[in-house]
Amino acid sequence: MPRKRLNKNDAPKQLTDNEIRLGESDFIVSKTDTRGIITYANRIFVEISGYRKEEIIGANHNLIRHPDMPRIAFKLAWDAIQAKKEFFGFVKNLRADGGYYWVFAYITPDLDPSGKIIGYTSFRRRPSEVAVAEVSELYKLLRFEEQRGGMQASQKFLESFLEREETTYEKLIHDLQLGEIA
Ligand SMILES: Cc1cc2nc3c(=O)[nH]c(=O)nc-3n(C[C@H](O)[C@H](O)[C@H](O)COP(=O)(O)O)c2cc1C
C-alpha cells in the first residue's frame, strides 16, 4: 500500500509555547521537488522537526507550517523561486510536539543544464534575536490583515510598511539578520 503523504492537516493541532533555539553553527537543509514535496532532509532537520525521517521524506513541506505565519510570506517565497530567484526570509516552523522554532531561511531553485527548474533547496540558520522580535510583530499584523481582507490586504499592508520604513523587503530582511532595527 502506498505510504500516506503527510501534509499540514497531519500537523499537531495543540500548539505550545515550547521554543527550540538553533545553535550558532546549526544548519537545517532540505530539498523539494517542484511542488514542495520533501526529497531530502539533513539530520538536524529531522531532529528538530520531531518526525521520523521516513515521515519527512515524501511529505509536503507545509507539514511544518506554523499557523502564526502569514500566507503572504510563502507567496513572496514561491513567486521568487518560481521566477528562478533566490529568497531570504524569517520563518516560524511547527514541530511534531506542537512547539516551534524560528529560522533565517534561504531558498534557491535547482536548475538543470537547460535552465529548467527541477526542484528547490533550502538552508536555514539561527535568526538574530532582533529579527525574531520584530518579525513576530510584523507577522501578527499581516495575519490580522489576512483574516480581515485576505492576502490582498496583507500585501498592501506590507507594501505601505516598507514604503514608510523607506526600505525594500530584501534590505529589511538582511538588516534584521544583522541585528539592525529597521
Ligand atoms: C525548498 C523549500 C523549503 C520550504 N521550507 C518551508 C519551511 O521550512 N516551513 C514552511 O512552513 N514552509 C516551507 N516551504 C513552503 C511550503 O512549500 C508551503 O508553501 C508553506 O508551508 C505554506 O503552505 P500552504 O500554502 O499549503 O499553507 C518551503 C518550500 C520550499 C520549496
Outline type: globular
Low-confidence stretches: none
For this structure, the CATH topology is Beta-Lactamase
Compounds present? Answer: flavin mononucleotide
Total helical elements: 5
Q: Write down the secondary-structure element order.
A: EEHHHEEEHH
The CATH class, by name, is Alpha Beta
Rg computed from alpha carbons, rounded to a whole number of angstroms: 16 Å
Which structural category fits the helices and strands? alpha+beta
Largest beta sheet, briefly? 5 strands, antiparallel
What's this model, at a glance?
By secondary structure, the chain is of the alpha+beta class. The chain has a single domain, classed as Beta-Lactamase.
Question: How does this structure look, described?
Answer:
The protein is α+β, with helices and mostly antiparallel strands. Helices cover 37% and strands 21% of the residues. It contains 5 helices and 5 strands, in the order E-E-H-H-H-E-E-E-H-H. A 5-stranded antiparallel sheet has the order 2-1-5-4-3. Strand 3 and strand 4 form a beta hairpin. Helix 4 packs antiparallel against helix 5. It is globular and about 50 Å long. The chain starts with 27 loop residues before the first strand and ends in a 5-residue tail after the last helix. The site of flavin mononucleotide (FMN) has 15 residues, from strand 1, strand 3 and strand 5. The site of flavin mononucleotide has 15 residues, from strand 1, strand 3 and strand 5.
